[in-house]
Amino acid sequence: MTYHPKSSFMRVMIERGYLADCTDYQGLDEALNAGMVTAYIGYDATAKSLHVGHLLNIMMLRWLQKTGHKPITLMGGGTTKVGDPSFRADERPLLTPAQIDDNIDGMKQVFAKYLDYGEAGNGALMLDNAEWLDGLNYLEFLRDIGRHFSVNRMLSFESVKSRLDREQSLSFLEFNYMILQAYDFLELNRRYGCLLQMGGSDQWGNIVNGIDLTRRVLDHEIYGLTSPLLTTSDGRKMGKSAGGAVWLNGDMLTPYEFWQFWRNTTDADVGRFLKLYTELPVEECERLGALEGSEINDAKIVLANEVTTLCHGADAAAAAEATAREVFQKGGVGDDLPTLVLSADEVGEGISIVQVIVRAGLAKSGKEAKRLIAENGARLDDAPLEDAGLMLDRGALASPVKLSAGRKRHALVRME
């Protein structure tokens, strides 16, 4: 892209790799340069925590605030009742209002680590679209908002088209989602002077709808900016690990496991991830990303420490690194390892090692645990585990034992 931005925020977006597309580079850049811009990203409350897949956009909001602008985190208390059909093969399960509120409470804990919700001029706002969506009168909404939407155009959006092309059902409820999201942008502009919506590139169609609607109803000029949908260099979706989603809440994934996820980054991704997920200067990110051989491991530790410090604090990052050194370099047992606690009753006369491996989260099933042992991938207190029929009795668990799957995944097992 040849456009050279004047505003600090657009410069950061371009230099660090956050920018996939923008509805009007120059118009947005000039608005950002002229004064404080209010921008939002919407988050549907489908789980109790956000995960690493959300982190790119959270960092965009953080940079927005650091460069003097005002972020809004819009919780989808209303839209979660409908469910975003974008690029999904099936309909999301519908949640109860109580589940949605519970999820929003969990997600708020994450945002507070990255954004300042203080009273200052550019203090972040936490809003919930249920505030204006829950009380909508259906007939009025159809008359005032629905008339601005062409069904022909809605059917042409990739998120809808891909579902219909595969002859997968798209409910009328889900079809309404893009109208509701567009209405969010209109309401945020009307109530808070919000000029910018950001999101992943899969949200492009929804963002453009909101801009069109606001132009038609209020005759206001507003903007959209999207980030790339990230995959790792080996083609996996960012934010997924062998064990499932990489959650940002410490009670759903320990800081040590979070740290370990980043420490295990593929060599080719280190430089890019340092730019996107840390606040180190761009030149330093590029220098670290260009390291080779064993030195790239030092860069991965820097990445893991920086990202974990932002999410869980400096103490958690230091503890995770210390545990990793203890486990990997000295073969010892670190206090921070994920721990499976068994009662004496559960152990009884003996508990199968296969069952323990599954319960410790090192394998998804007994079959997978047996295969791990058969392929020499499992270790017990750093010694190869060769007998899938092994039973651990109370004597064996009198002190904690360390289980390992491969070189990078470990857990402690102890009896209470």
Quick overview:
This protein is of the alpha/beta class.
Could you describe the 3D structure shown?
Homodimer. A motif ('HIGH' region) lies at residues 45-54. Belongs to the class-I aminoacyl-tRNA synthetase family. TyrS type 1 subfamily. It comes from Citreimonas salinaria. L-tyrosine binds at residues 40, 177, 181. The structure is a single chain. With 416 residues, this protein is α/β, with parallel strands linked by helices. It has three domains: 8-227, HUPs (Rossmann fold); 254-329, Orthogonal Bundle (Tyrosyl-Transfer RNA Synthetase), CATH 1.10.240.10; 339-415, Structural Genomics Hypothetical 15.5 Kd Protein In mrcA-pckA Intergenic Region, Chain A, CATH 3.10.290. It is 46% helix and 14% strand. It has helices at 8-16, 25-34, 52-66, 97-114, 130-133, 138-144, 151-156, 158-165, 172-175, 177-192, 204-218, 255-263, 270-277, 282-289, 295-312, 314-329, 344-347, 353-359, 366-374; strands at 21-22, 38-43, 70-75, 125-128, 196-200, 223-227, 240-241, 244-245, 339-342, 351-352, 378-380, 383-384, 391-392, 401-405, 409-415. The strands form four sheets. The chain has a six-stranded mixed beta sheet with strand order 1-6-5-2-3-4, sandwiched between helices. A five-stranded mixed beta sheet has the order 9-15-14-11-12. A hairpin with a 2-residue loop joins strand 7 (240-241) and strand 8 (244-245). The model has no long low-confidence stretch (mean pLDDT 87).
